[in-house]
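Hi there,

I know you've been waiting on this one. I reran it after we fixed the sequence typo, so this is the corrected version. Both the input and the resulting structure follow.
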Amino acid sequence: MAELVVALDFNDALDALNMAGVLRGHAPWVKVGLELFISEGPRIIHSLKGLGFKVFLDLKLHDIPNTVRGAALAAAASGADMMTLHLCGGERMCRAAAEAVAGLSRPPLLMGVTVLTSLAEGELPGCAVPLEMFAKTLARGASEWGMHGVVCSGHEVADIKRACPGLLCLTPGIRLAGGEGDDQRRVMTPAQAVRNGSDFLVVGRPVTRAANPAAAADAVRADMTSVQTPER
């Protein structure tokens, strides 16, 4: 069954940890992104792990292979259970990260970013094909380059699962029916994403900015479990 990841998009540890405390028992995963990680560093991961959460470190690494290799090892040492890197960094970069963590006793899941869900058709510079096609092309690469899964819109999951059956799919841009899209463009409800085959759903503001974040997380999980998952 798909798992919920709540994005702790705060710029200081106090706010992030207060929210995490509210969400204990309501979400198994939390996400640490660029804003929080730059503000607080690896210690925020240690603190969240101490509260019993699995931690998704979303830094979207994209650099030369040697730098990404070192960053992947540092992320693993920090306690991250899952991390992201941009597939546009290419095969050598992705393989460097995969090889770096392969020998660890508890390697993090490596998730390759395809196309950001904040981008709509025509907004990705230099891309002359539909975004769904481009995402699927990158996903095929991820399946061959040592990635455990990909980050993609819920609109691309079904095609990616058909093309790469063993690949995990992590889906941002999740909004409950009737909710605002904020700066996201290619959005989908939790039930729709699970029906399409998503393995992890990332939800931020609809939970963390709700009047009752715990109840909002429960509502997302209820929507996720309201449908049968597709056969894999």
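Quick highlight: The domain at 3-224 is CATH 3.20.20.70 (TIM Barrel).

Best,
R. S.
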